[in-house]
Amino acid sequence: MTNAAPSPGFALRPDRFRGLWLLAVLALLAVLCALSVAIGTRDVALGDIAAALRGEVDTIAQAAVAARIPRTVLAALAGAALGMAGTIMQGVTRNPLADPGILGVNLGASLAIAVAVAFFGIASAQAYVWVAIGGAGGTAVFVYTIGSLGRGGPTPLKLALAGMATSVAFASLVLGVMLSRGDIAGGLHAWQIGGVGGATFARMVHVLPFLAVGFVISLASARRLNSLALGDETAAGLGERVAVARGLASLGAILLCGATTAICGPIGFVGLIVPHLCRLLVGVDHRWLLPFSALAGACLLIGSDIAGRILARPSELDVGIVTAFIGAPFFIWIVRRTRVRAL
């Protein structure tokens, strides 16, 4: 538990402004979904888009649109999951630097899948999800334990350093696994970058139950996260079982991270950027912050995917590369803004 409470600059916003921001974010999400379906390496006409939405795939242009639809849906689901998971991690740890990527959770899921594929021969999509969730959960516990050692407990900087060190170590281990198994190295390397290309509804079906449970648990934890934000002693005085509250909220985040990593690979910084931006819009009340983080995360990942297609035409950049370009400067800004000095 750290003493890094949310910045007082993020004041609670009146309900009428929250409603306006909700409409604005929903409108932005609709626009980005439309652009994601329309923009790609091949130009398509409005008639081709309409035909593909009706299920007609008679031309190459219509086939291109049909391939972009599940890609857009996956980007929205993954962005929503990572945005909400980041908000929960920051709320549970009271750490403004918490993020599934920075805390090593995504890389833990990646390493678990790499080991399972290379040495245990797992091949089913459902097995991928279970392995990824196990790796994400184990890594979260490991990083929090390491970050809690020493004087001062789990300070924001100690958790961030422990997570980044774990991420580097796990990335090296994943590379070692790929080098030892050249027959699967190509597929693992492409997946390790993190992206939504090649998405299909058939692949998404296997992760939907886990995402659904993760979203429900996370949203149900909103009131508990508000209590935890007041401090452990105050939360306990209000009748909250602190360990149970923290464990349930963390379970929701782990389910969201593990399921997303299983199908997309490790995508970083979404869970760092989104909660901070959403606090500027709706304040620190998690009953509003969590759903807003889901919507904003979907917008960010869809927008990053569109940017990756435009910047590298006629090829494309994986969305994990784009979010890294956006998130690294944002991470530096957060560190400087919060003036986290304790080791």
Account of the protein in words:
- This protein starts with 14 loop residues before the first helix and ends in a 5-residue tail after the last helix.
- The chain has a single domain (15-338), classed as ABC transporter involved in vitamin B12 uptake, BtuC (Orthogonal Bundle).
- The protein contains 15 helices and no strands.
- The protein has 343 residues and is mainly α.
Q: Secondary-structure blueprint of this entry?
A:
Elements: H1 15-38, H2 46-53, H3 60-93, H4 105-120, H5 125-148, H6 156-180, H7 182-193, H8 201-204, H9 208-220, H10 222-228, H11 232-237, H12 242-264, H13 270-282, H14 286-311, H15 319-338
Helix pairs in contact: 1-3, 1-14, 2-3, 3-9, 3-12, 3-13, 3-14, 4-5, 4-6, 4-12, 5-6, 5-12, 6-7, 9-12, 10-12, 10-14, 13-14, 14-15
Subcellular location: Cell membrane
Keywords: Cell membrane, Membrane, Transmembrane, Transmembrane helix, Transport
Membrane topology: Multi-pass membrane protein
Q: CATH topology, anyone? A: ABC transporter involved in vitamin B12 uptake, BtuC
Q: Would you identify the CATH H-level superfamily?
A: ABC transporter involved in vitamin B12 uptake, BtuC
Proportion in β-strands: under 5%
What do the pLDDT scores average to? 85
Catalogue the unreliable spans: 1-13
Radius of gyration: 20 Å
Q: Total strand count, please? A: 0
Backbone structural class = mainly alpha
In the CATH hierarchy, the architecture is Orthogonal Bundle
N-to-C span: 14 Å
User: What does the main sheet amount to?
Assistant: none
- Binned, the helix content reads over 70%
Give the overall shape, derived from the CA principal axes.
Answer: globular
Count of DSSP helices? Answer: 15
The helix-strand sequence is HHHHHHHHHHHHHHH
- Highest CATH level, the class: Mainly Alpha
Tally of individual domains: 1
